[in-house]
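Predict the assembly for these two chains.
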Amino acid sequence: MLRMEKPQDVVAPPADAVPAATPVEAPRIAPDTVGDVTARDAVICVRGANVHYGDKHALINVSLDVARNEVIALIGPSGCGKSTFLRCLNRMNDTIESARVTGDFRLDGQDMYARDTDVVMLRARVGMVFQKPNPFPKSIYENVAYGARIHGLAANRAELDDIVYGSLERAGLIDEVKDRLDDPGTGLSGGQQQRLCIARTIAVNPEVILMDEPCSALDPIATARIEDLIDELSEKYAIAIVTHSMQQAARVSSRTAYFHLGRIIEVGPTDKIFTNPSHKLTEDYVTGRFG
Amino acid sequence: MMANDGDRNRHQLSPEETRRRVNAGLRRRYRSEQLFRFYGICSVSLGVVFLLVLFGTIIGNGYSAFQQSFVRLDIHFDAELVDPDGARDPEVLSAADYSLLVKSALREIVPEAGSRAERRELNGLVSAGAVFELRETVMADARILGQTRSMWLPLASEMDLWIKARSAGESGEDVGGRISANQRAWLERLQADDRIELQFNKAFFSNGDSREPELAGVWGATKGSFFMLLVTLLLSFPLGVAAAIYLEEFARRSWWVDVVEVNINNLAAVPSIVFGLLGLAVFINFFGLPRSAPLVGGLVLTLMTLPVVIIASRAAIKAVPPSVREAALGIGASQMQMVFHHVLPLALPGMLTGAIIGMARALGESAPLLMIGMVAFIVDVPSGPMSPSTALPVQIYLWADSPERAFVERTSAAIMVLLAFLLVMNATAVWLRSRFERRW
């Protein structure tokens, strides 16, 4: 696995001189990307990822690390490949028959796409929260218990109860639902459903949580609650979040990657990306000139 | 640039002109909508009228078959005639000529019938089936021998028709062609003596087929249909659902899957008699299964129903939202767990609908059954899926073909039984579906 000796500070050239800026700091790892794609204490390392949907080249030569206990935001205009990238990280693209994924994906140094890698195990370690809240048409309790049950995490009913209550508590939902755990999960409000989906994900005790625009279907108050939750969860999990809202990226993440037409244009600390981007395209996007 | 802008401005409508143009088209739009509604109402009412005519004719023709005329005779169980040596040997009792008892009872009521021809006319009043009833009475309890018992015995079918026509206020001329003047007089006298009564036709619901209309029943055919559909359901539903799940969820796109798919769709459109020929060649001639057995009928109908179930089940699986699959896969469910824990419960109501349609079609099918010998004349009520039997639609076809007039009303009555069978079956399926359906 390639790893930089130490991350170097990016010396940002003036914005108007950037268009063809070649990153000096990591030419071998990510020739298209400005900024440092590596991270200390990385749990996921991706190098040279390419995804084709049939003839469409959706992800071009992307490299990026996700560190433990960090929230990394993936931003960019629609169709730029950020969701595609996220779905590669727990092999959800396997379900799309026309999708072809190449490149080096490693979870704790282990090749995710190797022949002997178990996809069920991988998805137990890398959980995912989707754009639209998608609780199962079952009770609230069953929604949270399902993952623990299929993976055999609880030896008895008491342990299962512990997992369910604990997960609902960490998802900040327990006070709202503790009296109606047998009610259908789909009867909750949109924001509650999304927190239920987060509780369902953390009930399996994953190492990484992928979130694909988790707030795009929610109102501002529900969004604020989810963002607080992401903040709390980042103490325990690595979180990669795709978002269309730059304010959200700025609020919740410590690092940000900007995607454009299938490539990562720039990666860096969130405050730098939003206040002092190095690449012209990034600047155009974060200042709202397009996208 | 400027010229283009000018052109565009010239096409800009004023608000008044816009309103005028919309208004001009409005009336036409509403007219076509009203016309469409009118067409809709027309076709619905046409359908309802045809349905009412159908039910009207069937019920009008068939309701009378649920009743049967009986005559009350004082039967003297003459021990000398039935059991001459007095040993009460069941074989002797069963072989005795019970028609003599009926004849002597009739002669007591109508003593003036003296000549041989008149006696034959007199004996023709009572159904040939009366003999069986007397034999059963004696076989059940032989102590009745030597006693006289007043019994209700069924009239022959021509007499029955005449009595029914008379009690409906008609002259009975159109059905009385085969009844002699003597017989009419005797029937009228029996009626005056209160010896003739219309009773519920139990035989129709408990007997198998018979040459005598008054003894013929649908129970044999109903049971045959039931066993057949049981076999069909038990085979076609699991097989069809399994095939659909495999094709939708597990099979990778390949030319082989495409071939299977095209063939399934084609099989759904194959004329049913072809399946009958297939059943004859494969199940009977090759595997040596018995003819006329509901098991073979069920197998043939399974072949016919399977494509319908597969197509409906695949549509139901496709209709399950992808978000449910993603949710399950996202927390690490295997493909199998995703399908059986999440997709199948949501698709089950749709699959049941497909099964209902397939089974309803199978129930009404007669052509493939002709090929495998279920068209035979079978008197015994089948005891299981291996015993020879016929099916309701085939029974209807057989009776419609019979020359006896009394089979006309029985044909309609059998159609009513078939429709009732269908209703019960569909109601059960709808109830099952609403139990499985979870809209949350």
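Chain B touches chain A through 22 residues (CB under 8 Å). The first strand of chain B starts at residue 67 and ends at 76.
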